[in-house]
Amino acid sequence: MPPPVPARVTTLVLSAAGGLATETAFPGKSWWPMAYVGIALLLLALRRDSVWWGWLVGFVWGLGFFLPHLWWANYSVGEPIGWLALSIAEAAIVGVAAVGAVLVRRAPGIRNRAWPEIMAVAAVWVGVEQVRARWPFEGFPWGTLAFSQTDAPLVHLASIGSTALVSGVVVLIGGALAHAALRLRRLRIGGASAMIVLAAVATFGPWLVPLGAQPETGTLRVGAVQGNVPVRGADATAQAREVTKNHADGTGRLLERVEPDELDLVLWPESAADIDPRTDAGVAATVSRAADAIQAPVLLGTQRYEPSQDTPDLTIRYNELIVWQPGRGPIDDLVYAKQHPVPFGEYMPHRDFFRMFTEQVDRVSVDMMAGDGDGLMAVPIERMQRDVPVAVGICFEVAYDELIRHGVVDGGELIVIPTNNASFGPSQESTQQLAMSRFRAVEHGRAVVQISTMGVSGVIAPNGVFQDTTELWTADEMVQTLPLRTTLTVADRLGQWPAVVLTAMGALAVLGGVVGTIDRAVRERAAARARPMKGRTQKGRAPKGRTPRGRAGKERHR
């Protein structure tokens, strides 16, 4: 006997609770098992066999998750419309995953079979996450389930299959718990126990996956400076010179911990010099003072403005990382420009259209353009007498699987994530981002430094262990010796193949569900046509003045 179908109100309550529970698996609570509970609640809520109701259930789960998870967008935009629009759009995409979960249950070979259903739902979820990371406006991977697991044993799987594998296993565990709950309700203790054991194995088994952390091509002595921002939430350009001075002063404070020429590289964050030191003599003098005092190259973030090639009267900008050498200044051909500018934050798509809803679109007065090339900077290190390849991604780019991977595969021996979180107030945006940096450390087997203007910054070993962290809205410095590594993980070698395979499996399962739906509809129509005939036969007589079809047929046959 199949389990009873829950009431509609019950499904909505379960889905909302599931979304809220899943959000607690992310920073700042980081209760990672709650991701499994949240997915289990969603799957329990999806037991009604309705595509449209399934979408609504998924949408409600998405609102329960994204509204608190993306609260930082309210600080960034300055009014709720941005936060609400982003949360609603992401929740609507979760609704598509829920539709897929309903359909795959109808597929031949999956219908009424627990593990095929769980695996199909996991594949569908991964596929939708992959789409969400790429569309619309080049995607938004924030809230990927895998990023909730950086404190969990499951993070070890990042080195094998990146976010696709980790997210998929989260859904597998959640599915096992959901089916265990259904079996317990029906007092099927053996079946429930088997599901719980399998969930436990999937949860703790990844601890057995080894993670390399030892130096392979030497070590790099690095200083990282979090200079802080004078006025919280103020326009960055209005205080840009003071921000640069703060980072120069922080570099000077490093000399209280190290001797000049002791550090191989000093890291400043994104927007540490928003006024370009390559074109402004005052800012150049500030940066040079710091680099000359510490006697080490400084990798820093700046902005480059230039006329648009298509519209010369229009000014555009690039968000760049440059290297400033002591006694020399910038290295002209050593520049990385951000490849994934943030829509509605760094550039405004369809500006005229969105202006009808809010004038906040004009806060982005100069659109940022995307750079090209791989995220790799070969930084000359005098002590080592060679260029050390550094994989880089600016701010939100840490969320994109392929961008960081390209930098590593092309030779990056460590990863640096400069970021500016000053627009997000006291929210968890910075710690959510730091969790992504930690995930990347394990995924690629590289030391990672996330350095922010005002926090949270951190230095992470290749096995995901924190070596140092800072607090929000403080000036602070970190000094660490980082292992340089060249070994590629399985995830590096496989690239997007785990995501492609799982997405294809999910698509095939959904297609099977569509076929099953059509087959069921045909059968139901056939049964509906047969029911009136059966009723007339049972009555044994036809309406007055007419001969029963069966008898007439027999007479004609005779």
Automatic annotation (TrEMBL):
The keyword Cell membrane applies. Catalyzes the phospholipid dependent N-acylation of the N-terminal cysteine of apolipoprotein, the last step in lipoprotein maturation. It is a multi-pass membrane protein. Its EC number is 2.3.1.269. Residues 526-558 are annotated as: Disordered. It comes from Georgenia deserti. It comes from the Bacteria. Its main location: membrane. It is found in: Cell membrane. Residues 220-490 form the CN hydrolase domain. Belongs to the CN hydrolase family. Apolipoprotein N-acyltransferase subfamily. This is Apolipoprotein N-acyltransferase. Residues 531-558 have a biased composition (Basic residues). It holds the Pfam family LNT_N. InterPro entries: Apolipo_AcylTrfase, C-N_Hydrolase, C-N_Hydrolase_sf, LNT_N. It is an enzyme of class 2 (transferase). The keyword Transmembrane applies. The chain crosses the membrane at residues 31-46, 53-71, 83-104, 116-135, 155-177, 189-209, 497-518. Keywords: Acyltransferase, Cell membrane, Membrane, Transferase, Transmembrane, Transmembrane helix. Pathway: Protein modification; lipoprotein biosynthesis (N-acyl transfer). GO terms for molecular function: acyltransferase activity. The gene is lnt.
